[in-house]
Amino acid sequence: MRDKHWTDDELFARLYDVRPGHDHLARCAGCAQRMSAIRRRYEEIRPLQVEVSPEFLAAQRRAIHARIHAKRHSLPRVLVPVIATLLLAGIIIVYRPASVVPPPKQQISDSELFDDVYNRISDPLPTSAGPIRSLFQEQK
Question: Which of 23, 50, 94, 121 is most solvent-facing, going by the fewest CB within 10 Å?
């Protein structure tokens, strides 16, 4: 199986001697060419690097670990959802529509009901035609 070309990360790891693999660079001309270009660029910018003392780096590392392991206050993480829930509940309570009470039904006698039904049945036109009929009636 053929080796695939190395990524830039793999080439940089080889530049800093954290990846073995001299044999791949010897076999692959494309990767070797890219590696030589990276090394040339590295040699150009190397004089511009600032030397940092090991004490500074150790102090920086201790500060990073202290921040990682520091106990964080969980109050804001708990407080925000609680406030949002209370606010939503308050809005629902304040703006809840009042319950609609249906109006009392009008009580009519049986004779009035039969008269109304008879009048509706005896009229050959539906009730929706009433406004149209009124257009053609003579006005008194």
Answer: 50
Verdict on whether the full-model pTM lies above 0.85: no
User: Span 127-132, mean pLDDT?
Assistant: 79
The pLDDT tens digits of the residues spanning 91-120 come to 988 887 777 777 777 888 888 888 888 887
The full length of the chain comes to 140
For the chain, the structural domain boundaries read 1-67
| DSSP of the chain | -PPPPPPHHHHHHHHTT-S--HHHHHH-HHHHHHHHHHHHHHHHHGGGPPP--HHHHHHHHHHHHHHHHSPPP-HHHHHHHHHHHHHHHHHHHHTPPPPPPPPPPPP--HHHHHHHHHHHHH-SS-GGGHHHHHHHSPP-
CA angle 119, 123, 128 (to 5 degrees): 105
What Å distances lie between residue 66 and 53, 61, 110, 114, CA to CA? Answer: 20, 9, 89, 91
Helix axes 8-15, 29-45, angle to 10 degrees: 60
